[in-house]
Structures are given as C-alpha cells and as structure tokens.
Design goal:
By secondary structure, the protein is mainly α. The protein has helices spanning about 10-15, 25-30, 50, 60-70, 75-95, 100-130. The mean pLDDT is about 75.
Length: about 130
C-alpha cells in the first residue's frame, strides 16, 4: 500500500500547476485567430443583390397579393362546392330513400361546377395577362 506522504496527491498537483492550463482565458485569447476577424464584413456576399435593388418593396408585395387574391381561395371554393352538392345529394337520398343515387348525382353536379369554376378562373387570368401585355 502506498503512503500518501510519499508524493503530492493528484488534486494538489492539479491545483498547483496553472502554468499550462488550457482553460485559462489569457492563453486561449492569445492562441485563437477569431479575435482578429473583421466582424463588420459579412462572411458571404449577398445572393439576391439584383432583387434588393429593384424599386417597389412593400408596395409591389401588396400589388402581388392583390393580383393573387382570387386564386388563393380557389381550393376552398372547390372543396366547399363539392361538399355542398354531395351534401344536397345525401339529403335527397334521405328524403326519397334512394340511396346512393342522390349522392352520385350531387357529386357529378359538384364536379361539373368545379370544372366550370376552374375554366372560368383560367379564362379570366388569361384575359388579364393579355390585357397587361
């Protein structure tokens, strides 16, 4: 068994030896190059410099949203149109006890209405595009 008085213990040696401490702030500060970096310049160039120099800003965003407004609700119009006509067909089925024919006719009428809506919106968009040119 080793005598504890024969040499310094590990803890005492670690506390006494601070000359080569890697966690010392002064040592790490003098060793690292990042402190000499130019923090005022960006690390990479801006990607869309042409877009940033275009006039308009928020006004052009607002105009774009106004132009896209009718098309943003197209999905909801399609969904509600189908649900409405299938629901009417279901109600007719319950009233006349003619299951499944009311729902089938309602779904067909709903699909015809959806196709009409999409074709009408496409024609309006085409007319607007031709008008702008």
């Amino acid at each position: 068994m080793a005598d504890s008085s024969s040499g310094p213990s590990y803890e005492k040696q670690a506390l006494d030896d601070t000359t080569g401490d890697t966690w010392d702030e002064e040592d790490s500060w003098t060793r690292d190059d990042w402190k000499n970096a130019d923090w005022g310049k960006p690390a990479a160039p801006r990607l869309n410099t042409a877009r940033a120099s275009q006039p308009g800003g928020i006004a052009s965003y607002g105009k774009g949203m106004m132009d896209a407004g009718p098309y943003l609700s197209l999905g909801m119009q399609i969904a509600f149109g189908m649900v409405l006509f299938v629901g009417i067909g279901y109600g007719v089925d319950q009233w006349l006890n003619s299951t499944p024919w009311g729902m089938i006719v309602g779904a067909c009428v709903g699909m015809i209405g959806v196709f009409y809506l999409v074709v009408r919106m496409a024609r309006e968009a085409d007319a607007d595009q031709k008008e702008k040119q």
